[in-house]
Amino acid sequence: MLQLQKLSLTQFKNYDWQQWLFNERIVAICGPNGSGKTNLLDALYYLCFTKSYFSRQDALLVQRGKQGLRIEGNFLKDDNKNDIVCVIRENNKKEFSLNGEEYKRFSEHIGKFPCVMIAPDDVELITGASEERRKFIDTILSQCNAIYLQQLIDYNKIMQQRNSLLKAAAEHQRLDDALLDILDEQLTGLGQSIYDQRSIFLQQLIPLSIEAYHSIAQKEDGLSINYDSQLHNRSLKELLKENRQRDLYLQRTSCGVHKDDLEIQMHGQAFKSIASQGQRKSLLFAMKLAEFELLKQQKGFPPILLLDDVFEKLDATRMHHLLEKVCKKKDAQVFITDTHRERLEKALTELKVHFQLITLDN
Ligand SMILES: Nc1ncnc2c1ncn2[C@@H]1O[C@H](COP(=O)(O)OP(=O)(O)OP(=O)(O)O)[C@@H](O)[C@H]1O
Ligand SMILES: [Mg+2]
């Protein structure tokens, strides 16, 4: 069991200083637009991932007009207390520590406190560019496997070096063949391993996603999901070799696992072009619930679930199925936000679950 018991925020976004104690498994957070509901969830996410779910720049998290911030969370994990602290100093230096011990590499923290966020704009996972789906896959795999995360970091680093070399070759009209060969070899080893791990992982994730979709929608909708990769038919070694001239012309690496995608279809057509908004949303939830299930299997305890504004766009029946699945049939700690206090209270009361209600009003 993983449970956040206390969260303290100092100079984090709209919070000057604020502290909450959480004493129920289900925490309902209500308040008008702009009152800090999403910010609260993001602070919690930050403690699990050493970064914000929404913003790439830490500087944007510091309260306007202030310098530095502090986020502290007390987690209970298998009956052990864990204290996670993130401090961003006045000079923007970031420190991250677990039980008083500071991390040298933030990536070492990933996966220890698994958590799944579902936010309104996440529908991009279905409708957006392939990068969104790779990010989704990578976030889960990285939490399950530290080696995967390191390989991914290295792959991206080497690819950047390769791209710089391709640019330099175009500028100087001269190519360092030997160096390119070395980079290709390194990229091949990493890329091939990433591909293998994604393949195995998606054989689990895809059927779970489809199953979850059916149970939320109560319909089949002709849904199919497939792993799409250039590495299905050729090795990365061959791909890099065959496309070297093209890469030199383009001045970037045109083949590899950084082009992977999920092909999502409805009755054989692109899902994003024909599915309704509610259907897209349902698939989004389904994929996130599959993520939750896989993390739970892998960790042996359920991740924390963060549901931001999930009431929007879903009809009452689908909403009920989802909440029942999430709050009743699972044993995870759940944080759920809504602008309408009555609606959220009513839905949770109907489910007959114990919950804590937090009302924000600033
Ligand atoms: N760096 C910052 N400093 C101060 N305030 C900030 C900062 N970043 C964001 N805010 C404020 O936080 C508020 C938004 O908070 P948040 O997104 O959590 O609201 P919310 O309760 O989720 O609202 P909604 O119901 O619209 O989703 C805005 O008023 C915004 O101005
Ligand atoms: Mg919000």
Folded structure, characterized:
By secondary structure, the protein is of the alpha/beta class. It has two domains: 1-114 and 303-362, Rossmann fold (3-Layer(aba) Sandwich); 121-299, RecF/RecN/SMC, N-terminal domain (Glutathione S-transferase Yfyf (Class Pi), Chain A, domain 2, Up-down Bundle), CATH 1.20.1050. It has eleven helices and 14 strands. Strand 6 (94-98) and strand 7 (101-102) form a beta hairpin.
Q: What kind of sheet is the major sheet?
A: 6 strands, antiparallel
Helix content: 40-55%
Q: How many strands in all?
A: 14
Structural class: alpha/beta
Dominant shape: globular
**Number of separate helices:** 11
Percentage of residues in strands: 15-25%
CATH homologous superfamily (4th level) name of the largest domain: RecF/RecN/SMC, N-terminal domain
Element string (H = helix, E = strand): EEEHEEEEEHHHHEHHEEHHEHEHE
Q: From the alpha-carbon coordinates, what is the Rg to the nearest angstrom?
A: 22 Å
| Reported CATH architecture of the largest domain | Up-down Bundle
* Molecules bound to protein: adenosine-5'-triphosphate, magnesium ion
Instruction: Indicate the CATH class of the largest domain.
Output: Mainly Alpha
User: Ranges with pLDDT <50 over ≥5 residues?
Assistant: none
Strand order in the largest sheet? 2-1-4-5-6-7
What is the overall pLDDT average?
94
CATH fold-level label of the largest domain: Glutathione S-transferase Yfyf (Class Pi), Chain A, domain 2
Termini separation comes to 33 Å
Number of domains: 2
